[in-house]
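Known limitations

Files may contain more than one protein. Parsers should not assume a single record per file. Below, a two-record file is shown to illustrate correct handling: read the sequence, read the token line, then continue until end of file.
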Amino acid sequence: MRQPSITIIGAGFGGITMALELRRAGFTDITILEQGDGVGGVWRVNTYPGAACDVPSPLYSISSNPNPDWSRRFAEQSDILAYLRDVAARHDLLRLVRFGVTVTTAEFDERTNRWSVCTADDEVIESDVLVTAVGQLSRPSLPNIPGRETFAGSAFHSAEWNHDLNLSGERVAVIGTGASAIQFVPEIAPEVGRLTLFQRSAPWILPKPDCVYGDWHHRVFRTVPATLRGERFLTWAIFEILTVALVDTKWRGALAGVLARRHLERQVSDPALRAALTPDYEPGCKRMLLSDEYYPTLTRSNVDLVIASIDRIEPDGVRTVDGTLHPADVIIYGTGFAATEFLAPMTVRGRDGTSLDDAWSDGAHAYLGITTAGFPNLFMLYGPNTNLGSGSIVHMLESQARHIAGLVGWLAEHPGCAIEVDAGVERRFNDRVQRKLSDSVWSLCSNWYRTVSGKITNNWPGTVTAYRRRTRRPSRRDYRITGRPTGPADTPLAPGAADSHRSR
């Protein structure tokens, strides 16, 4: 059995999880390309004040690497980054990573059944297998507001926080009220002179059941590991129930809306402000957020909530459609990411030189969110339709990594060949996914899960349990092997091939 060479792009949760699974399966010819200067992915880049995960830490971690030393239930950015660095160091993964490498293009060579990756430094790296682990929330999105470039003060996206800028006493305009804004707004409000928050749509916010893990927690987690597994299981079960509410059982979603409204009523007494903070769309259509500090912050005397639409940005501030100029010294964009532009800005070309952009002209799609017909030996982590409206993406990444390791096992037994999903299998899978998504709560409003045309390309319309079951063992009926050194090309996998590489 020949060892296939494997290139992984990205050293965040996805890349680390993939490398661990490949190592566990016995594969050692692995190279990880990371454009940053360290591991961690979005948890290395997003350093804005208050940055934290909205999934409890015992679940938002790699199952084979539990952490008894989390500082709190909902870990902050520094804790998560330290965890990823520790996992990479303990498993000797750092020697696999090449830092400061930006991938610009990737092309499949049908003569050799290998991928050629070109970097920004014009280096070409070849391998049998290419795995992308670049995430969905890695490219900051700036709003197309007229006059944005004319602003005379400092301006930055929350994912590119300017830590050299002292906000003390400044007039700060925050554009956007998504997951990042509800974390950093409470942190900076006490120090700024005035904070003006521009809200396009109010988020649904639930209480955050956070707590600090003290020394006794850590002792119990270390001496009785079952307690950490128990909290992980309980959190997983709650999120599975919430997922069913979002996709199949609408009354449970309505119940979440009732809890969110009560949370708002308890924390905001002013009727006018409460009305402005009440969402006008179905609970769960956009990701429901968790915070106990956001609403109280908006009641501060130095905080203004503006619900009028922005007309343009001027050198001295932000002007709304009602003609009001809101003066600002600093603008912070909490406007999310280009989430539907998968793998951008890389150019990826498969069979016959077909670009992935052309193959995805009607919206990104992939079988199980992992692989697209016409692009052999290319596998994606956190690909199309694998995001969750409720739950831990790390759980999904582990399922994907196991599936990909199984496919790499087939390639090891068929040297020089390529594995490709059957086009009909992929089409039927995605048709079923889109039919189910069309009945989900995510189809009822504008959100970052949808393309301009309205197609939902990001979310998985089911539980993580259902996804894990679908990805547990690659089926030989779903894939074709091409480029066999002897015998006809483009033949189905031999009977039993799927079972020759053990899936864990």
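...continuing to the second record:
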Amino acid sequence: MIALSLAEIASVVGGQTHDIPDPSAQVHGPVVIDSRQVKDGSLFAAFVGERVDGHDYADQAVRAGAVAVLAQRPVGVPAIVVEDVQTALGALARHVVRRLGATLVALTGSAGKTSTKDLIAQVLRSKAPTVFTPGSLNNEIGLPLTALTATEETKFLVLEMGARGIGHIRYLTDLTPPKIGLVLNVGSAHIGEFGGREQIAQAKGELVEALPAEGAAILNADDPLVRAMTSRTKAKVILFGESGEADVRAENVRLTDSGQPAFMLHTPSGASEVTMRLYGEHHVSNALAAAAVAHELGMSATEIATALSEAGSLSRWRMEVTERPDGVTIVNDAYNANPESMRAALRALAAMGKGRRTWAVLGKMAELGDEALAEHDAVGRLAVRLNVGKLVAVGGREASWLQLGAYNEGSWGEESVHVSDAQAAVDLLRSELRPGDVVLVKASRSVGLESVAQALLDAEGEVAAR
């Protein structure tokens, strides 16, 4: 974080100083909400959670090196007291972003946000110092915390923006006004909360509405609901995709024998070949989105292609591929799931598993509302159509729908099995896996299926990660 005095921070957030002997003392370390993450020079933001009240850890935070606490009441140690810590955190982030003047890139979408954000960050940091959202901290707390890690050297700030309702992205863009806004897709994620894809499109489009006239809206030419957002922005529009009308597009898309995408990247400045380290054809669209951002920021096609070809996965449990010493390959994509990402992962598994026996260990896709039965059934059916060797559906009602979809698709579906929980899945796999098998593990985050992948890896001791 840039150095700010406690007096300046209090002024920015509209707070009152309490128990501060020296208002000129500077915060120069990170702003944190977990007292265990405090470093020398930090500002500790004390949130009141469902189970833990951060104010109870104020003394511990100061003893660990925090200069002061951002709090909603006096805490007996140096503090800036405000009415609402979340609002104050946002105000501080807005102040820092405007003061720095870094180019702010914001992105949203129903699927692929984190993977695309990681690609954008890796491409841009090959050009200049870049700060980006860690993992998927894309909400009203995670976004300002990320923005506050920027320093005077930061040239690009890449922020992922999530939404669970109309107005959420508008709120985030007010905190950190973007110059470049990217919308990846409009899918089924959180459709139960929004009520339909049109409502999701309305929420995602708030990003392009926030862009200045001198900014750029990066839109998916292959998604009609995203492409229609052209009319909702006063900024320049750049289209990406496989469509011939896209400004940044891919041609000759193919998968290597190991399931990694390769294609010819075309931008207005030229063309160059890309062979990615990531797995699955769905990463082509993510790569094109990153390429469109990089092109707008002045990078050549060759520079972009080189950076994309060198980029890896920065976030855990997203198509994380690990090979055990016995030749079994574990694909841990268990961070989250929705119908679009589930289909993409299954297609990647099919590509990776050519000539090998494949397993799809799948669980519930959350927040689908009235679409849940049909979507789980469709995923089970797709596993059969892709000739996945065996489906292991883990959990309760939704898992039974996955298994039933596979069973009803045809005779292969009899190879599918429904187990009650993660441990049952582990027991089954440990007894039946053989060298050369490929195992995909995927479900919504609440299911916790990453434990299945980890158990399968732990069982074999040391592994060689790709």
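Parsers that stop after the first record will miss the second one. For reference, the second record is described as follows. The chain has 17 helices and 23 strands.
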